[in-house]
């Protein structure tokens, strides 16, 4: 498989070089710089650097190159991403932002540059809920999976997108390790537990190391948003990686996100990072639905005694300080860990457990908020 991917990468490089040589004046792709090629099991992603001012005029050429790569033998799906490079006239304080296939509303530049387009809804998807945290290890993916499945159990059409490209965990947590089908240039999401899911973990081996640069990661997120056949969904839940980096920015630039949910554990070190996540969503103008305190307390299954291993109530207090809603507490339970490892969401296996009821109560609040957002449109 590795040899096949290497050969496909070489063929892709030759094709892009041919496109670049076709017009060295820059009317096609002659003005671009090849930043990287990533190939995994027939999935090809190319990133091309270009002066930001020229990116819009190269969209037709970008699409042509993408279509040509897709026709190469063995290619299951192809994506070409234009990534803006700053020119000498641009302010050093202005960060380079994705353009072309990755336009963003928060890029900066000269006064004569037209404003970047606003993030757009995904066709057929009514709402997007981003689940984020400033810190890893708080159980955010567990929360994302159970919120998505609980919404499906409530009668909604739900999708779940794993945006943690470096550490995808959805295949294990959903008990679904099969590769997605490809129809034309569209990836078909994997269905499990009543939801549609897409994760890089479905496309690569579980022990593969994703050694990708930022533009490639952003391109993968864009591909999941634009080239997955999500169909008609009431809600798409996006499980974000920890932190406040490229992936979070790409999501805010490319998709109209209805609101965000912040997951934290009770202790101060996690709350500091949760505060950063709140500030990040505020800066990119994504409404915050509220905070969830995961691993809130441990209740002994033998004697029923409650122990606050990580403290208790920290996320509730932080939500009040930040002026945000507090959505609820998820207890630390051995069955949640065991079921997650076994690929079974606790809301399906044990809906009447403390954790199952807690997730259901949080979903009730989110559905009220989604209804409010729909009525405001």
Automatic annotation (TrEMBL):
Annotated Low complexity bias: 92-102
Residue stretches in coiled coil: none
Role summary: Binds and transfers iron-sulfur (Fe-S) clusters to target apoproteins. Can hydrolyze ATP.
Residue stretches making up the MIP18 family-like domain: 33-80
Any Gene Ontology biological process: iron-sulfur cluster assembly
Recorded GO MF terms: 4 iron, 4 sulfur cluster binding; ATP binding; ATP hydrolysis activity; ATP-dependent FeS chaperone activity; metal ion binding
Region (Disordered): 87-122
Subunit annotation: Homodimer.
Keywords (A to Z) from UniProt: ATP-binding, Hydrolase, Iron, Iron-sulfur, Metal-binding, Nucleotide-binding
PROSITE patterns: MRP
Name of the protein: Iron-sulfur cluster carrier protein
HAMAP family reported in the protein's UniProt record: Mrp_NBP35 (MF_02040)
Amino acids binding ATP: 134-141
Membership in a protein family: In the C-terminal section; belongs to the Mrp/NBP35 ATP-binding proteins family. Belongs to the Mrp/NBP35 ATP-binding proteins family.
Matches recorded under Pfam families: FeS_assembly_P, ParA
């Amino acid at each position: 498989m590795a040899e096949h991917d290497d050969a496909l990468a070489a063929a892709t490089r030759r094709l892009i070089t041919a496109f670049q040589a076709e017009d060295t004046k820059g009317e096609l792709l002659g003005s671009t710089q090849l930043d990287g090629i990533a190939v995994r099991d027939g999935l090809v992603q190319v990133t091309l650097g270009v002066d930001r001012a020229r990116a819009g005029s190269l969209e037709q050429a970008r699409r042509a190159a993408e279509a040509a790569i897709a026709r190469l033998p063995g290619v299951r799906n192809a994506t070409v991403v234009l990534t803006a490079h700053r020119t000498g006239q641009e302010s050093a304080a202005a960060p380079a932002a994705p353009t072309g296939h990755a336009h963003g509303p928060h890029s900066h530049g000269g006064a004569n540059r037209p404003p970047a387009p606003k993030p757009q809804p995904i066709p057929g998807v009514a709402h997007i809920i981003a689940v984020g945290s400033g810190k890893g290890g708080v159980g955010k993916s567990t929360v994302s999976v159970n919120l998505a499945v609980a919404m499906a159990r409530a009668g909604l059409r739900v999708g779940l997108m794993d945006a943690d490209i470096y550490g995808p965990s959805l295949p294990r947590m959903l008990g679904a390790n099969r590769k997605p089908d490809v129809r034309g240039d569209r990836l078909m999401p994997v269905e499990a537990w009543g939801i549609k899911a897409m994760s890089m973990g479905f496309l690569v081996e579980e022990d593969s190391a994703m050694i990708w640069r930022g533009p490639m990661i952003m391109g993968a997120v864009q591909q999941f948003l634009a080239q997955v056949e999500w169909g008609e969904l009431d809600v798409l839940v996006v499980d974000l990686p920890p932190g406040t980096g490229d992936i979070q920015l790409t999501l805010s630039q490319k998709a109209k996100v209805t609101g965000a949910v912040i997951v934290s554990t009770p202790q101060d070190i996690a709350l500091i990072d949760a505060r950063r996540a709140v500030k990040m969503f505020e800066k990119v103008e994504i409404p915050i639905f509220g905070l969830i305190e995961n691993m809130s307390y441990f209740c002994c299954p033998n004697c029923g005694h409650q122990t606050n291993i990580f403290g208790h109530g920290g996320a509730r207090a932080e939500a009040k300080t930040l002026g945000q809603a507090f959505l609820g507490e998820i207890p630390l339970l051995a069955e949640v860990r065991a079921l997650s490892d076994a690929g079974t969401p606790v809301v399906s296996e044990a809906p009447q457990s403390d954790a199952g009821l807690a997730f259901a109560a949080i979903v009730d609040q989110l559905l009220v908020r989604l209804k409010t957002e729909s009525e405001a449109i």
